[in-house]
């Protein structure tokens, strides 16, 4: 890798990179939280079939994610960079595909046609277009600056972009897509669903364009001839031998299952169990405000204590809050939100530095093997996150089926309502505990190891420059 002669890294790059994840989450977060609701309550498709969709799509991702990673690793750098052009190319297709998923007019179509439409549009969005924009975007962090602190700052700003999307999607969308019927039940308005999806798609395009025009690739990656000729088998062998990558993949998988399943199940918990759509918006707000408050402290705290160490602490806080809620089994939405804040406070700072973990893994891979494979490693990590998303949807859907949830009924039985509460508390608690244990026992990149890798790569760059 060598540094190119461009303007210095600064706030413009950080804000631009923030807009990239802001754009991602206008479609990704909306799908994570509301897509199952749309499929079950608007189109009338069973929760089990929706869970099957998510699992099938992840099998497709096993090929498309890694393939995209290898494409960007081997692509030659243009005058606009190696990763940025993909943001410009794919921002329109990914936004359009997202909009097509939420067509309320399909409600009257035959069941088989609705299921086919669901599979085609979801795979087109998530497995093709979202992959083609998200992997270059995530890989781009390593070429905006070679400095470790700059990359940690990029992770923080990326997380802030996600938080801003959560404020809009998580807080605003429930107030728009749900209405109240004559007897006080919260019901879905399919026309508003499609309208909101269209607005979010346009907003995503705007954010992607801001990301493209406000960032600059400064580090040119020199692809070695031997690396270019390496086959898929050798690449897979290198990835499977990377303990740091396997550790963060397992942690990411468990983390996404916990987070996204909670967001999805919360739609049923607050609408069917608490019967309070306003509390759902407050819950989302309570989840994102700690991250915004902690953002200025993320880089200095991670420098002092280490990213791994902060991650373990944050996940334990989340697990404790979930287990406490499970045993209390409260009927109060206010108390439920209040106890969740414990987990949000501990977990918020971990979320802010989460994306810096993967740049540490990329550095570790280069120290061990001498090869720099930003796109391929990020693709493997991205695939793990999608697996987490699929398991979240699949597990949530199957769990709803097991407890007897009936999408055709507006009012569920008390037994089903209690089952929804148990799913929303016990399962995430177990998963957050699993994330903490994965980081503790499997992920090797503690504060000392990361600093050693940074020093080793800096010395290697100096020797290459001198040679």
Question: What is shown here, in short?
Answer:
By secondary structure, this protein is mainly α. It contains 18 helices and four strands. Strand 2 (178-180) and strand 3 (186-188) form a beta hairpin.
Throw out a few tags for this protein:
single chain, 467 residues, mainly alpha, two-stranded antiparallel sheet, 18 helices, disordered N terminus
Can you put this structure into words, describing what you see?
- The protein is mainly α.
- It is 79% helix and 2% strand.
- It has 18 helices and 4 strands.
- Strand 2 and strand 3 form a beta hairpin.
- Helix 3 runs antiparallel to helix 7.
- The radius of gyration is 22 Å and the shape is globular.
- The N terminus is likely disordered.
- One letter per element, helices H and strands E, the order comes to EHHHHHHEEHEHHHHHHHHHHH
Distance between the termini: 14 Å
What form results from the Cα inertia axes?
globular
Radius of gyration: 22 Å
Structural class based on helices, strands and sheet pairing: mainly alpha
Largest sheet: 2 strands, antiparallel
Mean pLDDT metric: 84
Widest sheet, order of strands = 1-4
Strand content: under 5%
Number of helical elements: 18
Tell me the number of strands: 4
Helix content percent band: over 70%
């Amino acid at each position: 890798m060598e540094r190119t002669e461009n303007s210095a890294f600064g706030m413009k790059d950080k804000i631009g990179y923030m807009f990239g994840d802001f754009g991602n989450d206008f479609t990704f977060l909306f799908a994570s939280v509301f897509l199952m609701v749309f499929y079950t309550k608007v189109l009338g498709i069973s929760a089990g079939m929706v869970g099957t969709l998510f699992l099938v799509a992840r099998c497709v991702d096993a090929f498309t994610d890694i393939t995209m990673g290898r494409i960007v690793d081997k692509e030659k750098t243009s005058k606009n960079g190696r990763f940025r052009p993909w943001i410009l190319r794919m921002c329109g297709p990914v936004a359009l595909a997202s909009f097509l998923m939420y067509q309320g007019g399909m409600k009257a179509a035959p069941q088989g046609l609705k299921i086919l439409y669901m599979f085609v549009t979801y795979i087109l969005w998530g497995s093709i277009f979202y992959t083609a924009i998200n992997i270059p975007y995530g890989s781009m962090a390593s070429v905006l600056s070679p400095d470790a602190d700059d990359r940690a700052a990029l992770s923080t700003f990326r997380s802030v972009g996600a938080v801003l999307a959560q404020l809009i999607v998580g807080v605003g969308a429930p107030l728009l897509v749900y209405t109240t019927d004559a007897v006080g039940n919260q019901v879905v308005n399919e026309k508003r669903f499609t309208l909101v999806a269209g607005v979010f798609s346009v907003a995503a395009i705007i954010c992607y364009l801001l990301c493209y025009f406000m960032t600059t690739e400064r580090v040119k990656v020199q692809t070695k001839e031997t690396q270019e000729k390496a086959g898929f088998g050798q690449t897979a062998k290198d990835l499977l031998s990377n303990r740091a990558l396997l550790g963060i993949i397992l942690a990411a998988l468990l983390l996404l299952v916990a987070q996204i399943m909670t967001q999805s199940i919360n739609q049923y918990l607050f609408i069917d169990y608490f019967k309070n759509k306003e509390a759902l918006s407050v819950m989302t707000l309570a989840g994102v405000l700690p991250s915004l408050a902690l953002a200025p402290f993320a880089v200095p705290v991670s420098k002092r204590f280490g990213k791994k160490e902060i991650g373990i602490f944050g996940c334990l806080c989340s697990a404790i809050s979930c287990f406490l809620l499970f045993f209390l089994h409260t009927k109060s939405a206010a108390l439920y939100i209040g106890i969740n804040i414990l987990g949000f406070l501990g977990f918020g700072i971990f979320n802010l530095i989460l994306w810096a973990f993967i740049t540490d893994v990329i550095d570790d891979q280069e120290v061990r093997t001498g090869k720099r494979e930003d796109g391929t490693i990020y693709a493997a990590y991205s695939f793990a996150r999608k697996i987490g998303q699929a398991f979240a949807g699949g597990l949530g859907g199957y769990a709803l089926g097991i407890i007897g949830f009936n999408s055709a009924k507006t009012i569920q039985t008390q037994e089903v309502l209690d089952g929804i509460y148990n799913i929303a508390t016990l399962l995430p608690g177990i998963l957050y505990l699993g994330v903490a244990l994965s980081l503790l026992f499997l992920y090797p990149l503690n504060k000392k190891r990361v600093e050693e890798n940074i020093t080793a790569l800096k010395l290697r760059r100096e020797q290459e420059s001198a040679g």
